[in-house]
Write a structure and sequence with these properties.
Elements: H1 2-13, E1 17-20, E2 31-34, E3 39-41, E4 51-55, E5 67-70, E6 73-75, H2 77-80, E7 84-86, E8 92-94, E9 104-110, E10 114-123, E11 132-133, E12 141-145, E13 153-159, E14 165-169, E15 175-177, E16 179-186, E17 189-196, E18 206-213, E19 225-230, E20 243-248, E21 253-255, E22 266-273, E23 276-284, E24 287-290, E25 297-298, E26 304-306, E27 315-322, E28 327-337, E29 346-347, E30 355-359, E31 364-373, E32 379-384, E33 389-391, E34 395-400, E35 407-415, E36 422-429, E37 441-446, E38 457-462, E39 467-469, E40 481-487, E41 494-500, E42 503-506, E43 511-513, E44 519-521, E45 530-537, E46 542-552, E47 561-562, E48 572-576, E49 578-588, E50 593-598, E51 607-619, E52 622-633, E53 640-648, E54 658-667, H3 678-718, H4 726-755, E55 757-758, E56 768-769, H5 770-773, E57 778-782, E58 790-792, E59 806-811, H6 817-829, E60 842-847, H7 857-864, H8 874-881, E61 887-892, H9 905-911, E62 919-925, E63 938-944, H10 948-958, H11 962-975, H12 977-982, H13 986-997, H14 1010-1025, H15 1038-1052, E64 1058-1060, H16 1061-1067, ...
Parallel strand pairs: 2-10, 12-19, 20-28, 30-37, 38-46, 48-54, 59-62, 59-63, 60-61, 61-62, 67-68, 68-71, 71-72, 72-75, 73-74
Antiparallel strand pairs: 1-2, 3-8, 4-5, 4-9, 5-6, 7-8, 9-10, 11-13, 13-17, 14-15, 14-18, 16-17, 18-19, 21-26, 22-23, 22-27, 23-24, 25-26, 27-28, 29-31, 31-35, 32-33, 32-36, 34-35, 36-37, 39-44, 40-41, 40-45, 41-42, 43-44, 45-46, 47-49, 49-52, 50-53, 51-52, 53-54, 55-56, 57-58, 57-63, 64-66, ...
Helix pairs in contact: 4-6, 4-8, 7-8, 14-17, 14-20, 15-18, 18-20, 18-21, 20-21, 20-22, 21-22, 22-24, 25-27, 28-29
Length: 1434
């Protein structure tokens, strides 16, 4: 059986012979068969011959035939032994070729009696498929330096027949060289050799030669051999000055060996080791020649590559290249540099700070240094000036560190104070050292201050008000530095803040500084009083400004108090003729004097004041002042006098305190008229009151002591097992209830403060009110038990209805997770009516980036939410929250949680190991989901602005001209639908709207690709961040490329785009780092750590959004890829990136650099099923050229299957569909498996697995929905119809292998087409197909449903007008049904009707959908179409 199969294959292939000649015969001769293998003596007799007789010699009369073929029957000894067989065309099959078969064979063909003789020659291929060059040691290619007298030979041993060898000089056009050919025999085998007569060096030092088989049959050699030869005289490699190249230690070294025209086919690399030039690698045509040292690699382009280079790689490297005519020599002096351990020079006196203040009173020795660098760094001390700087005498020293090859560099200078009060000195690296260190360190020297030179200005401010003290140095002074000092009481001056080159440093809280150098105290208090001194200067001259700051406190109440006047309104006092007036003021600062006098001058003659008594007491720096005065009215005086109490003295002008009142004299009695003086009466009354009070208190105390004793006796019986009395439990309950109320109040206060105003994006000019600007976005909820089914929620408020214990809300970056949960917190804190708060007593929101090291939820609340002076301890919080089911804990940003990979408290909380009954909501990126969540966890997905209505709503809320902005957005999105995909992210959309509203995006700019659009973005951000002249910081500048390298590192490690601020500042120039932050590209945030008494921690910085990280990484890679070999790019760069997760990075590269784009596109086509994505990248590179549109047309001219196995293919194909639709390119048909119809009234898009949706396509012809064993719900069926109505070119909708959609219009008032209602089961003249439909309907009658939705009715009308055919095949063995719009019923498609499209093509397109079910699906689908729609010919 096996032999027959082998013969059949050989007869079909016709490829068993090594060589065939004499092609004019039916059986060419000679024919070469390979020794030891099965072979075929080829013949090509036509079908008129039916009998073939084969003989082993030319004598067919005496020698018997070895095999005969007679109309399919085989006879003969050769056939019986299995040695021979004959094909239908007369060819002779030989099972195993040996030298015994090397002779003539004869074949006689009947019935036409044709005889042909064939000379069979046995061929033997050599051991190597290439010839052997003598100097190459058996290798296919090599490099060699000839010694005098050396010759070049090329040979092929042990082959048959002898191989004809030729030498060729490789060049633009290869040329044959003169050689001497010899051959020798060894039994049956031959050895052939050719020696080159003359090596054509001519004027060159390198020659590239090739040895190969000449024109000969058979072809025994499949490959050539090549050698790159250096002349015996040698090359003077020291003849040219090397170009210095710097490489960072542990980086990849790549040295190019390229001419300006083309890559050299022959390249040799040498290195000077210990004064001797050694060959380290070569490239000979397409072969890479390596040495014993694996550290060196020569690339396809001829470049030298070394990975993870060290200091030992410092040397001179030379490349020699030739193209056969011209030679190229390049020399490189490789220097390996190592950045120092410090990001900035270390100033001894500053203890590692980049900028510090140092107070000195004598000439000061300043030392700065760096460690761990290579080479040494020339540090210099300078005095910065407004323009340039003054260099100080600097003593430098360098020490080689024990680590070997690394150095410590030091710079020392001495500074004299001179006449200055402040001097700024900086330690900087000189120009040649900026490769290692580009940042400076500075020290602000402060010398003894002569106060006599300053005249302070008085500054009064009200307690709690903001104070701003300007530091004006005049128009002629450029403020290089501003220093603020303070002195309180008799202490010395203390530096509280300073500003150097616009950068502010606050040494003492709570002070601040404005950009102009003014000192700011937001809420001045009594403790802030004192002498304040400002020193500003430019290191050439300085100005000193001083202030005496005083704080006044308005009294409480804010008026004078007149004893007897209970109200603040005008009052009248009834007094005796001789009496007393008392006036006071409380809690005032500074102290004032009080004066009591008459208002009318005329009254001074009748009333006299005496016994003036003033008292003042100070409590907590505030004064309580009382003024008492006695008066006497004359008998002839008026009955009423107007009296005034007024604050006087030095500071009274701050308050303007004055009270006016009437004194009325009703009794003019004198002392000694027989009645008791009123003073005695008052004293008696007071004594009586005191005695009565004392007696009452004594009685109460006695009764309380009796009650306490009684309760103590009772407690012996009432105490429970834990020793708690009922009274104690009640007290604890009341305390816990009070604690709950306190927690409630403090949470709501914190949320109101932190969520009321938000910045729409970092770098925005003004904050916006959250409640008024918030826009609802699309939220999907996974259906129970349905992995790929998601249903939309009406509002974010639905998240909190019927909550399970755990809920996960995932979203891509920038889709508004934090904004949405902040809106929830704001709603809860303001008791929003729309929120279902009845079941939620406490809402706790925490940022998980702050929770590193936190051991419990109670610690997190106490540390990160409650104020420092809160009375709620962790113990109290635990008592409040324990066992409560009306608490919701929202954890925002699991992707930024430092401890997510460990067994931390919060991973246990999410898993339900602690606080199982407490409801927890987790918000995280889709790419960073927890590994362990309890059963029953609800999954939700936030999708952003998926609808134009979302975008329109946002624009209406934040801009004044929404129509103009929507028009401009329409212009941009209309060019390329894939650009619109970017702006489904609310954060990016808000930035775009801001730029358009401010006119920052020119209407003349071509924004047809994502790269061009983002380039326009970055130009605007560049202008926002600072001067455009700072080219290093520009988006293609040196520091931007460094930032891109950092971003690439983060993305290649899984998407981390957050770094420690100091680490990133060290990698970039400080000025550029600040510019990136001020522009809003980078965002600094405080990462609060547990265990600190104050809310401070590690400062982190991250990109505003991941797409910005992709942009900078793309800029870096596009620049690097231009001169790097493809295989290095593929292996070391692109292989670390997932194109689906970083799609914009790939597209940005293609839009930024054409050379890099070609390499990226090549990589995508070779990996990830990436043809579709590669086409998107081609659009980024070339735009919408005719060639690109032709590719799109070809792609959609056949069935497009959206494969579940490739997210990248699905997503890219959908973007290309949208492009095709916008360009009017026909889309033949789309086939989707496991599809569901997520179509909302807003978006009108068709959804497929993993939340990917397809927009309406105006050029789509057919849509095939392939449901495998799933039930299409009423909602899904209706929404599919709605989607159809939005595709005006749609001709067919095919529903395959899905249960019902039975659409019954009989109970509705729908009129679609005006025809009569369906007659299924009612007409006598029913066809066979209709009868089948009746049976189907009876079987599945319970699945029928009625359509009532008006939008579905409208869609059906639109579909009917477009004459679109809806066909349905529920199962493999069922007929195919057509929807009859007039009857409103499904009708069987008659079997005689032809298929609307080739079924076989559909089957082939299913091939990649699911490897597991492919065979069954394909067969079922074929049956379905044959039964329903085809004529059986398929």
């Amino acid at each position: 059986m096996y032999l027959h199969l082998l013969v059949y294959i050989f007869c079909l292939s016709g490829s068993a012979s090594v060589g065939i000649t004499s092609a004019q015969r039916n059986c060419p001769s000679p024919q070469y068969l390979e020794l030891g293998r099965a072979g075929t003596v080829e013949c090509s007799f036509n079908e008129s011959y039916s009998r073939f007789l084969w003989y082993e010699s030319l004598d067919s009369t005496t020698n018997p035939r070895i095999v005969e073929y007679n109309d399919g029957t085989l006879l003969g000894s050769g056939y019986d032994s299995g040695a021979y067989d004959v094909c239908r065309n007369g060819s002779l099959f030989i099972r195993e070729v040996s030298f015994d078969y090397e002779h003539y064979f004869r074949v006689v063909a009947l019935p036409k009696l044709t005889q042909e003789d064939i000379n069979v020659v046995v061929a033997v291929s050599p051991l190597n498929p290439f010839p052997l060059i003598g100097l190459c040691d058996g290798n296919k290619s090599c490099y060699a330096k000839l010694n005098p007298g050396d010759s070049l030979t090329c040979s092929v041993p042990d082959a048959k027949p002898a191989v004809n060898l030729t030498w060729m000089a490789v060049g633009p056009e290869d040329s044959a060289l003169e050689s001497e050919f010899t051959e020798s025999k060894n039994g049956h085998l031959d050895t052939s050799q050719t020696r080159l007569v003359t090596i054509p060096f001519e004027d060159n030092d390198l020659v590239l030669l090739k040895c190969s088989q000449g024109k000969q049959t058979p072809r025994l050699l499949k490959k050539y051999a090549a050698i790159l030869v250096e002349s015996p005289g040698g090359i003077i490699y020291d003849s040219m000055t090397p170009e210095t190249k710097h490489f960072e230690r542990d980086s990849i070294l790549v040295l190019p060996c390229l001419s300006s025209d083309a890559i050299q086919p022959g390249v040799v690399w040498k290195r000077r080791l210990a004064g001797e030039w050694r060959t380290i690698g070569a490239k000979v045509l397409s072969d890479i020649i390596t040495t014993n040292d694996d550290a060196y690699t020569v690339t396809e382009e001829g470049s030298l590559k070394m990975g993870d280079i060290g200091i030992t790689e410092e040397d001179v490297y030379v490349c020699m290249g030739t193209d056969g005519v011209n030679e190229l020599m390049l020399s490189y002096d490789v220097k390996v540099y190592v950045e120092p351990e410090e990001a900035n020079p270390y100033i001894d006196s500053c203890e590692g700070k980049v900028l510090c203040v140092l107070e000195v009173d004598e000439p000061t020795r300043l030392i700065c240094q760096t460690t761990g660098s290579r080479p040494t760094i020339n540090l210099t001390w300078v005095i910065p000036k407004t323009e340039g700087y003054l260099t100080l005498n600097t003593e430098r020293s360098f020490i080689e560190q024990p680590a070997g090859g690394l150095y410590a560099s030091q710079a020392i200078t001495t500074v004299n104070p001179g006449t200055r009060s402040v001097l700024l000195a900086s330690c900087i690296p000189e120009n040649e050292s900026t490769l290692l260190m580009s940042s400076n360190s500075s020290v602000l020297l402060q010398f003894p201050l002569d106060e006599l030179e300053t005249n302070p200005s008085d500054s009064w401010t009200e307690n709690g008000r903001e104070v701003q003290l300007p530091c004006d140095g005049g128009k002629d002074l450029s403020k290089l530095f501003v220093v603020w000092k303070r002195r309180r009481e008799n202490r010395s001056f203390q530096t509280i803040a300073f500003q150097v080159l616009g950068k502010t440093n606050i040494l003492l809280s709570p002070f601040g500084m404005s950009k102009t150098g003014a000192l700011i105290l937001q809420s001045a208090g009594i403790g802030d009083e004192g002498r304040y001194l400002c020193i500003c200067g430019d290191n050439q001259k300085e100005v000193i400004v001083s202030y005496d700051v005083n704080v006044y406190v308005n009294p409480i109440p804010n008026n004078l108090i007149v004893t007897g006047c209970e109200q603040q309104s005008y009052c009248t006092l009834d007094k005796d003729a001789e009496d007393q007036i008392e006036c006071s003021v409380n809690r005032i600062r500074p102290a004032v004097q009080l004066d009591i006098s008459t208002v009318e001058v005329s009254d001074e003659a009748y009333i006299s004041f005496y016994g003036h008594d003033s008292s003042s007491r100070e409590v907590d720096d505030l004064y309580y002042i009382t003024k008492t005065v006695n008066f006497r009215i004359r008998d002839d005086g008026p009955d009423k006098v107007i009296i005034r109490c007024k604050a006087t003295g030095n500071h009274s002008a701050q308050f303007s305190l004055q009270e006016t009142f009437d004194v009325r004299f009703s009794v003019r009695s004198r002392v000694g008229n027989g009645s008791l003086p009123w003073q005695i009466v008052v004293i008696v009354v007071i004594i009586i009151a005191v005695v009565a009070t004392s007696l009452t208190i004594a009685i109460i105390k006695k009764r309380c002591s009796e009650n306490t004793a009684g309760k103590g006796r009772q407690s012996l019986d009432d105490t429970d097992g834990e020793g708690t009395t009922e009274g104690t439990e009640l007290l604890q309950f009341r305390k816990q209830d009070e604690g709950l109320q306190n927690l409630l109040n403090e949470l709501k206060l914190w949320y109101k403060m932190s969520t009321e105003k938000i910045m729409p994006f970092p770098g925005a000019e003004d904050p916006l009110d959250l409640a008024s600007m918030y826009v609802e976005t699309t939220i999907l909820q996974r259906e129970d038990g349905r992995v790929d089914r998601w249903s939309p929620l009406e509002s974010y408020l639905n998240i909190f209805e019927n909550m399970p214990e755990r809920t996960v809300i995932e979203a891509d970056p920038g889709c508004g997770k934090s904004l949405m949960i902040s809106k929830v917190a704001n709603d809860w804190s303001t008791d929003c009516d729309s929120f279902p708060w009845n079941d939620i007593k406490l809402f706790i929101l925490l940022k998980m980036s702050d929770l590193g090291g936190v051991k419990s939820i109670y610690e997190a609340i106490r540390t990160h939410i409650l104020p420092d002076d809160s009375t709620l301890s962790e113990k109290k919080l635990k008592a409040i929250l324990k066992g409560r089911v009306d608490v919701v804990i929202a954890l925002d940003g699991y992707d930024e949680y430092p401890d997510k990979y460990g067994d931390s408290y919060f991973t246990k909380l999410l898993a339900g190991d602690v606080l199982r009954e407490t409801k927890v909501v987790l918000l995280t990126r889709t790419s960073s989901l927890p590994e362990r969540m309890p059963a029953g966890t609800r999954s939700m997905r936030l999708k952003g602005f998926t609808s134009p209505n979302h975008q329109q709503s946002y624009i209406n809320k934040v801009t004044q001209r929404p129509g103009r902005i929507m028009e401009r957005l329409g212009q941009i999105f209309g060019i390329n639908g894939s650009v619109m995909e970017m702006f489904k992210v609310p954060l990016l959309f808000s930035i775009m709207v801001n730029l358009i509203s401010k006119g920052s995006i020119s209407e003349c700019e071509d924004l047809g690709t994502v790269a061009s659009l983002f380039e326009a973005f970055m130009k605007v951000f560049g202008r926002r961040g600072g001067s455009e002249n700072e080219t290093s910081c520009s988006w293609r500048g040196v520091d931007s490329l460094k930032l891109g390298k950092v971003a690439f590192g983060g993305l290649s490690r899984g998407g981390g785009i957050s770094w420690n601020s100091n680490d990133l500042r060290r990698k970039l120039r400080g000025a550029c780092f600040e510019r990136f932050v001020s522009a809003g590209i980078l965002v600094e945030e405080q990462q609060i750590r547990s265990g600190t008494s104050q809310r401070k921690g590690k400062q982190n910085v991250k990109f505003i959004h991941k797409i910005f990280a992709e942009w900078y990484a793309a800029c870096y890679l596009a620049d690097a890829f231009e001169n790097i070999a493809y295989y290095i790019i593929a292996e070391q760069n692109l292989s670390k990136l997932n194109p689906f997760d970083n799609q914009y990075l790939f597209r940005f590269i293609c839009g930024l650099n054409g050379t890099a784009a070609d390499k990226v596109i090549r990589y995508l086509k070779s990996n990830y099923n990436g043809d579709e994505f590669a086409l998107l990248c081609t659009i980024e590179k070339n735009g919408f050229t005719e060639e690109v549109l032709k590719e799109v047309t070809v792609l959609f001219s056949k069935t497009v299957a959206l494969k579940p196995t490739s997210r990248l293919q699905r997503h890219s194909t959908i973007l290309l569909m949208d492009i095709a639709s916008r360009k009017g390119i026909p889309i033949t048909d789309i086939l989707m498996e496991r599809c569901y119809a997520l179509v909302s009234g807003d978006s009108g898009r068709l959804g497929i697995i993993e939340g990917i949706t397809i927009p309406p396509l105006t050029s789509l012809k057919e849509l095939i929905l392939f449901h495998v064993g799933t039930v299409m719900s009423t909602q899904e069926t209706q929404n599919i119809l709605i989607y159809m109505s939005k595709c005006p070119s749609l001709e067919y909708l095919s529903l395959a292998k899905s249960f019902h959609p039975f659409i019954d219009f009989s109970r509705t008032n729908i009129n679609i087409g005006g025809g009569a209602e369906g007659n299924v089961g009612g007409d006598e003249g029913m066809s066979d197909g209709d009868q089948v439909a009746v049976e189907i309907e009876k079987d599945y009658k319970e699945l029928s449903y009625v359509i009532y939705r008006q939008d579905v009715v409208d869609s059906l009308n639109e579909i009917q007008r477009s004459k679109c055919i809806v066909q349905w095949s529920p199962f493999a063995d069922s007929p195919t049904f057509i929807l009859d719009f007039h009857a409103g019923k499904w009708k069987v498609l008659p079997r005689q009707e032809k298929d609307v499209r080739p079924t076989k093509e559909v089957c082939e397109e299913l091939e990649d959908l699911s490897a597991k079910d492919h065979e069954e699906m394909c067969i079922d689908f074929m049956k379905m179409h044959r039964n329903g729609k085809t004529n059986g010919n398929d």
